[in-house]
Write a structure and sequence with these properties.
- Helix 2 packs across helix 10 and helix 5 runs parallel beside helix 12.
- The protein folds into two domains: 212 residues, Rossmann fold (3-Layer(aba) Sandwich); 158 residues, Rossmann fold, CATH 3.40.50.2020.
- 37% of the residues are buried.
- With 389 residues, it is of the alpha/beta class.
- Helix content is 31%, strand content 22%.
């Protein structure tokens, strides 16, 4: 039974409402367009009943904003009713392109600013919605997920704060450490892997890949990402390798112990295409270092896949790596802000996640299980088998 026919047999939790904060306007519009298209194609007697009131609409986006005073303070405003709605709030805490003024000085919005705006919108809802789900693709403070000595536990604190404000469930992607969900054991928390979307984008844009252990290999750049790489290698039917970072624990540089060397564990990679899998590209230094180590071992084409492309130090190093033949392609998702400069690069492949998010929202609005979307093995196999034919 097609997905849309299946979920129409259950009553929605409430009228669907999507609030895409300013940081996620573009992604929110794409998600909305998918849901509008699907629901307007539904031909069922149920849609005319009171339980499906407002089910088919021209838009599910709810207008909201966070205007600021001259001092830099702000307030959240929702410009239409949300009473009884099943609300989905979409926010990109990494969108540094947005600015605001403080006493005439221009500031770029930090993750802290985006998180505060999210709380303002939740506060503006004022408890009137039937249910609130926060979709935060890059989990706020996810890299501060554990305590070393006298440090704050920012991610756990943020999750508890949101649920205390009335958020029922939090949906994120490729959380740096999923165990942070232990901070809110009685609330919903899902961390979604975009493996299917990565594989689909890779096979669509690179037509000459040979998916077997003799020609291709998956690499985890560190031990922390092994589970991600193991799944990737398993569904593609290829071998796995791993680097581990040898650090100088006697020194602290920029708040962390510097990496002394990248040591490799795995089979011979000479002549094989290599897929480096990680959750994010921050500065990109580790990715470049791993690519250099792979090139020393005579690897073939090197593909870099990361859910979040932050590129905090700019793109110069990746431009140079591409020109030197070190990196062949870089794939990241549109879950976080993508500058036009990045989208124009010849080595860059953007992985669109809007349809996936739309499917999740559409299904959750009917209180249906999303297990099949969280475990996409069957769909991956169909794509891979079709590619091999």
């Amino acid at each position: 039974m097609p997905q849309q026919e299946k979920i129409i047999e259950t009553i929605p939790v409430g009228p669907l409402g999507i609030i895409a904060l300013e940081s996620s306007k573009a992604l929110g519009q794409k998600v909305n367009n998918y849901i509008v298209s699907w629901r307007n194609e539904v031909n069922s007697e149920h849609t005319s009943t009171i339980a499906f009131s407002g089910y088919q609409r021209d838009s599910y986006l709810i207008s909201a904003s966070c205007p600021r005073f001259g001092s830099g303070e702000a307030k959240g405003i929702i410009k239409e009713t949300v009473r009884g709605d099943d609300l989905y709030l979409l926010v990109d805490v990494c969108n540094y392109s947005l600015t605001y003024t403080v006493c005439g000085q221009v500031n770029h919005m930090s993750p802290d600013d985006h998180y505060q705006d999210l709380k303002r919108i939740i506060a503006a809802v004022g408890g009137k919605a039937r249910r609130i789900t926060v979709i935060m693709p890059f989990l706020y403070e996810s890299r501060q997920h554990k305590r070393s000595s006298r440090e704050s536990l920012d991610c756990a604190l943020a999750l508890q704060e949101l649920t205390n404000m009335g958020v029922e469930s939090i949906l994120t992607f490729d959380a740096h450490d999923p165990r942070v969900q232990n901070a809110i054991p009685l609330k919903g928390f899902e961390t979604v892997q975009p493996t299917y979307q990565f594989i689909k984008a890779l096979l669509k844009n690179v037509p000459d890949l040979v998916l077997d252990p003799d020609h291709m290999m998956v690499i985890s750049p560190d031990e922390g990402g092994m589970s991600r790489a193991v799944y990737f290698a398993s569904v593609l039917g290829i071998d796995l390798g791993m680097f581990y970072k040898r650090r100088d624990y006697t020194t602290v540089v920029h708040g962390r112990n510097p990496i002394v060397a990248h040591e490799f564990l795995g089979d011979d990679i000479e002549g094989k295409d290599v897929l480096i899998i990680d959750d994010m590209i921050s500065s990109g230094e580790s990715m470049i270092d791993v690519a250099m180590e792979l090139r020393k071992r005579k690897a073939g084409r090197i593909f870099v896949c990361a859910t979040f492309g932050l590129f905090t130090n700019g793109l110069d190093k990746f431009d140079e790596a591409y020109e030197q033949g070190l990196i062949y392609r870089v794939l990241t998702t549109n879950l976080v802000y993508q500058p036009s400069e990045l989208l124009s690069k010849p080595y860059y492949i953007s992985v669109d996640m809007s349809k996936y998010i739309a499917l999740l929202i559409d299904t959750l609005n009917h209180d249906e299980s999303i297990s099949e979307f969280l475990s996409p093995t069957e769909r991956i196999q169909k794509v891979v088998n079709k590619y091999k034919k």
